[in-house]
């Protein structure tokens, strides 16, 4: 039987971060589709429980129990290949995932179009904000940051007909003003990019993620999942 975490445990949760899923040559940010499927198979075969950001938020704010082996799967940017290669695999395994979309890239070459975004969001692949233009927020004025966080949220809410509650900060960069705006706009959680597990004591707007790179083999993937 799974062990379950309560609000009073360490609060550490593994949030995986992907970008490109490719059928061609791998690079730093591109994981081959076969390797991605192997990683998802490993998650299934080893008793991990893939949960949503909604479940993580309930765990952190209300103490709703989650499995000790809980994992969250996320994608940044909104590349078309996420639909082509990741989406079918996630559906095959029955896994939930979150995709943080750069809203200025919707309908652009190599990125998702509106129809695919709606389809994925309706089928277990929650679409959330990755700002409008994917800029370093900590180098921007308050007004510029407000635009990036507010307009991306509004664009997606208009497209999906529901509230957008989560955001991934581009490059993991933010400052105090970013957090103020994030809270003001009623985002519930915000993601960074540090290669560590998410932990409640760092706050709801500074959640670490563990990046999976193109050269991550299955042994290294196992080590990522087992990080303390």
TrEMBL record:
Residues 69-228 form the NodB homology domain. Pfam families: Polysacc_deac_1. CDD domains: CE4_NodB_like_5s_6s. GO terms for biological process: carbohydrate metabolic process. InterPro entries: Glyco_hydro/deAcase_b/a-brl, NODB_dom, Polysacch_Deacetylase. GO terms for molecular function: hydrolase activity, acting on carbon-nitrogen (but not peptide) bonds. GO terms for cellular component: extracellular region. Residues 132-159 form a coiled coil. Its main location: secreted. It is found in: Secreted. Keywords: Coiled coil, Signal. The keyword Signal applies. This is NodB homology domain-containing protein. It comes from bioreactor metagenome.
């Amino acid at each position: 039987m799974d062990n379950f975490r309560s609000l009073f445990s360490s609060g550490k949760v593994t949030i995986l971060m992907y970008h490109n899923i490719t059928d061609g040559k791998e690079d730093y940010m591109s994981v081959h589709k076969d390797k991605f499927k192997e990683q998802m198979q490993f998650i299934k075969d080893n008793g991990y429980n893939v949960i949503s950001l909604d479940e993580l938020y309930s765990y952190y704010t209300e103490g709703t129990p989650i499995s000790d082996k809980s994992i969250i799967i996320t994608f940044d940017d909104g590349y078309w290949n996420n639909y082509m290669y990741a989406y079918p695999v996630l559906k095959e395994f029955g896994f939930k995932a979150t995709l943080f979309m750069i809203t200025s890239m919707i309908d652009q070459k190599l990125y998702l179009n509106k129809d695919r975004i709606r389809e994925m969001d309706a089928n277990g692949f929650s679409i959330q904000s990755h700002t409008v233009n994917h800029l370093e927020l900590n180098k921007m004025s308050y007004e510029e940051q407000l635009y990036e966080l507010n307009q991306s949220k509004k664009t997606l809410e208009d497209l999906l007909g529901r509230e957008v509650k989560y955001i991934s900060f581009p490059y993991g960069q933010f400052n105090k003003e970013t957090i103020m705006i994030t809270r003001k706009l009623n985002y519930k959680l915000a993601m960074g990019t540090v290669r560590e597990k998410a932990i409640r004591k760092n706050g709801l707007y500074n959640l670490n993620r563990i990046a999976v790179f193109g050269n991550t083999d299955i042994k290294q993937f196992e080590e990522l999942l087992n990080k303390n």
